[in-house]
Structure formats: C-alpha cells, structure tokens
Amino acid sequence: MEDAHTHLMGRHALPAYSATKFDVHGLTVDIEFSRYGVRAVCLMPWFVETAILDAPTAGTNGVLRDDARNIYPVEDAVKAAWNAAHTDDLYVLFGKEAKGIRFAARFMPNALRKRMMRAQNEALSKR
Questions:
Q1: What Å distances lie between residue 15 and 10, 63, 79, 109, CA to CA?
Q2: Residue 63 has what DSSP assignment?
Q3: What is the predicted pLDDT for the residue at 127?
Q4: What pTM did the predictor assign?
C-alpha cells in the first residue's frame, strides 16, 4: 500500500519517504511478472490508523497524525485492498481525500503545489 498524498504530490518534511513513493510508478512488476500469471495493483490509501502516524515529523515537535485529516480505520483499508485485488485497475486510490489529490494533481497541479507550499510554510512557522 502506498500513501496517496506522498505518492501523488509529495509531502513537506518527508522528502525521502515521498521519493520512495514516487518510485512505485517506475516499477514494472505488473509487466515483468505477468507471464507467470502475477498481477500487481498499486493501492494508494489516504491516512490509515497505523503506528506510523505517531512517528515524529522531522524538524518539529509533532507527529504525522497532527497533520492528518480524516484518518481511516484499518478495516476500511483492508476492504479497499480486497477490492483492489479484484479489479483490473493498476492504480487504486482509497479515501475521498486521495481521490481529490489525484484530481487536483491532474487538472490543477499549480494550485495544488501552492497549497502544499502554504502547508509547509505554516508547519515551519509553528517551530
């Protein structure tokens, strides 16, 4: 599972984490292993209630949970994973926020970038 936010747009204070998520698009697992009957799906959920939300955010006194809007229960992510495994889609987004980020990244990337920069500046000003 991939974090939709970092996978689609990146995230302030998490450059290495964001970079690894962008690399998923470059993987050809679905193509490389299709000859063996293996199919890959990239599931990109919004924030899910896991321990990573309580990890410290670099350079702050906060944790990722402090910035998360609408945290989804693990059970909902499991259902999304099950549904993703039974679809022909290569990329599956979970959560209305993830779908909103995808829409904004596709149709208004500059506005989304400005929003992300504002969020970063607000986070930095709280330090």
A1: 7, 15, 29, 18
A2: B
A3: 62
A4: 0.67
Q: How many Cβ atoms are within 10 Å of 76's Cβ, its own excluded?
A: 15
Extents of the domains making up the chain: 4-125
CA angle 44, 46, 47 (to 5 degrees): 125
Q: With contact defined as beta carbons under 8 Å apart, do 42 and 79 qualify?
A: no
For helices 96-107 and 109-125, give the axis angle rounded to 10 degrees: 120
Tell me which of 53 and 16 has the higher pLDDT: 53
| DSSP symbol at 114 | H
Mean pLDDT of 33-61: 84
Stretch among 8-17, 42-51, 67-76 having the lowest mean pLDDT: 8-17
Region 79-105 average pLDDT? 89
Distance from C-alpha of 97 to C-alpha of 105, rounded to nearest angstrom: 12
What's the sign of the alpha-carbon dihedral 47, 112, 58, 44? positive
